[in-house]
Amino acid sequence: RSTLSSSSAASDVYKRQYQRRVRGHGMSLYDKYPVDLVLVRHGESEGNLAQSLSKKGDDSLWTEEFKNKHTSKYRLTDKGRLQAKIAGEWIRQNIAKQFDRYYTSEYTRAMETSGLLGYNDGEWFVEFRLREQDMGVLGSKSTLERKKELASELERRKRDWFYYQPHGGESIANCCLRVDRFLNEIRQSCTGLRVITVCHGNILTACRIRLENMKQETFMMMKKDPMQRTYNCHILHYTRRDPLTGRVSAVFEWLRSICKLSLCFEFYPKNIIWNFVNLSNILIRSLGFIEID
Q: Does pLDDT of 4 surpass 70?
């Protein structure tokens, strides 16, 4: 058993909210979930790399051909493919060598990631409800172009990240609605099973909002907290099984978050910290630190 302390006020709020839910709030929502639900964000994509460079003032990757490519077609970079292999190895060694059900977003970068995790015998279900948030007019535009051409959109987004909906796109709240439909489906079809899902950063956020019963203000606090960001090949492991006793609860009572930051967090009832693990020693040293939207 390891322990992790944090002075972050936001983290304390998250822990208290989670513990209240476990003691009875919303329990009927969770009584049919899989025993283990593993959520994985895709590896670094062409879009992530292009935006990362644009934030540094370099739009060299934003050619006309690239701008005309729909974001669903973005491929993994070499770095992203290596990330997926490393994440898959960690999951196989620390969570499960096989799962009962495999889901992936239909976007190319997610399907490539799922194929590189090492579950070659798994039958992957392609799920369009797990697609990334539609960014509307902000999509297929670099960070520099957004600041220059769509300053009013960026100002609107600053006012409310949760309900902000770009013209022609979706808000995080919209994403939560379709994530709800997916979560309801696995409650009915995957009760008691082990499930792995490969999707996107904002969809992982939407899953957290619904699974942890977050309120809007909690989401806004999370958005400002660097410990809460979702990185490429970030792994979230929700489980109903007590890691110390093996007892299976009716609800998801334990979560571990595996990413590249040493400032990761975990929620546990009774302040139990279970098997805290992070991949920083592997990923940061081998791949470099990646900034993403």
A: no
Specify the DSSP class assigned to residue 241.
Answer: B
Ranges 8-12, 33-37, 169-173, 205-209: which has the least confidence = 8-12
Residue whose structure tokens are 């025993």: 35
CA distance 171 to 139: 13
Nearest to 271 by CA among 38, 24, 12, 27: 12
Short-list 91, 94, 88, 95, CA closest to 114: 88
Report d(CA 181, CA 220) in Å as an integer: 23
Say how far apart CA 243 and CA 48 lie, in whole Å.
Answer: 35
Pairing of strands 254-258, 194-199: unpaired
Predicted TM-score of the model (pTM): 0.80
Q: For 283, list phi and psi in degrees, rounded to 5.
A: -75, -45
Residue 177: phi and psi, rounded to 5, are -65, -45
| Nearest residue to 104 (alpha-carbon basis) of 139, 76, 146 | 76
Cα–Cα nearest to 264, from 286, 281, 288: 281
Q: What is the pLDDT of residues 187-225, one digit of tens each?
A: 989 999 999 999 999 999 999 999 888 888 888 887 777
